[in-house]
Specification:
- The protein folds into two domains: 186 residues, Up-down Bundle (Four Helix Bundle (Hemerythrin (Met), subunit A)); 136 residues, no CATH class.
- Helix 2 runs parallel beside helix 4 and helix 10 crosses helix 13.
- It contains 16 helices and no strands.
- 77% of the residues lie in helices and 0% in strands.
């Protein structure tokens, strides 16, 4: 009871409440940005400003009140990423810039955040670097100019003003992209030793969610659905993402001791790769996502020929290939029904 009460108090600490608020505000921004209403865009500007300010105050309160915690260290970067990535995606959908500009930004933020969570679980907290903070500042500036540009268009301001805002936004976006790539390299270069730890390899092979005590394979299958949705607009990006997941599994599993258990239940990166096979070139909708998920899980459990034979392959290939077979069977039905 004491542990539960202590955990509840940590969840409700003021810095963490500000993180929850930032996430909720962030999720409202795409709807406002994609609206054609001036009022909605002004509200987007106000909400974005409030959300960005909470990023400063949650850290300030945590330090001032000595309320820093592992949970807060996980929630703060997640809240930041939700704010930045959802807003960047919304402006891309609105046509301000191509979605391809966002691919390296999304990849860096998702991979680094995933690694930081894994390192933190391994009791190896890695603080934000100064370069990362500068990168975040430029991301906020890009979005501020994007909002200002949309509002200027709504107000019918002169072409000189609107074009100045648009080109300033693009210039800042280029700087942001460079900082994103350089800061991402810096994080991994500075933490090479942690990347090689067996516990981080286990976390990676589990995609984090495989460490949950109940239905790890199901959680692993669900985990990649947001990545499927993010990459489905480009077949090459989709294939590269699926291949990257499969490669990450090879990298991680090759660092595990499989002498006692050839296919540990916590390894779920193979389910992630299999799900990418299931939805290749399939039109996505709530119905197709649910159907594909259920079909993949059915074939993954049933293991029709040659899935069980594929399980006998040595090392990682035996772990991976039966899920690829399950994904292929699911894909055949999905293609027949939805394509």
């Amino acid at each position: 009871m004491t542990s539960w009460a202590s955990g509840r108090r940590e969840l409700l600490q003021p810095p963490n409440i500000l993180c929850y608020l930032r996430i909720l505000l962030s999720l409202s921004l795409p709807f406002l940005i994609l609206s054609n209403s001036l009022t909605a865009h002004i509200w987007a500007a106000i909400i974005f400003t409030v959300a960005a300010v909470t990023d400063y105050f949650d850290g300030y309160l945590a330090r001032k009140l000595s309320l820093e915690s592992d949970f807060g260290r996980i929630m703060d970067p997640i809240a930041d990423k939700v704010l930045i990535l959802t807003t960047l995606a919304a402006f891309s959908l609105r046509g301000l810039y191509s979605g391809y500009w966002l691919v390296p930004i999304f990849a860096r933020e998702l991979i680094v955040t995933f690694c930081r969570i894994g390192w933190l679980i391994d009791k190896k907290a890695v603080g934000a670097e100064m370069l990362g903070k500068v990168k975040l500042t430029f991301q906020v500036v890009v979005l501020a100019f994007a909002i200002a540009y949309v509002v200027a268009l709504d107000l019918g301001l002169s072409e000189l003003i609107t074009e100045s805002l648009r080109w300033t936004m693009f210039g800042t976006l280029i700087i942001t992209l460079i900082l994103t790539l350089v800061s991402g390299y810096s994080v991994f270069a500075a933490n090479r030793e942690i990347l090689q730890s067996p516990s981080f390899a286990k976390f990676t092979s589990a995609m984090g969610v495989g460490l949950l005590p109940i239905a790890p394979g199901t959680w692993g299958s669900l985990f990649v659905i947001p990545l499927i949705l993010l990459t489905a607009h480009s077949v090459w990006l989709y294939i590269l993402t699926g291949a990257a997941i499969a490669w990450a599994g090879y990298w991680a599993v090759s660092r595990l001791d499989l002498s006692q258990n050839k296919d540990p239940s916590f390894v779920t990166v193979d389910e992630g790769a299999g799900m990418f096979v299931t939805f290749l070139l399939i039109p996505l909708s709530p119905l197709s996502l649910l159907t594909g998920f259920l079909l993949f899980r059915l074939f993954d459990i049933w293991k029709p020929f040659p899935a069980r034979r594929a399980e006998r392959l040595p090392g990682y290939w035996g772990i991976l290939c039966d899920d690829l077979v399950a994904g292929f069977y699911a894909w055949l039905i999905m293609w027949w029904v939805f394509a």
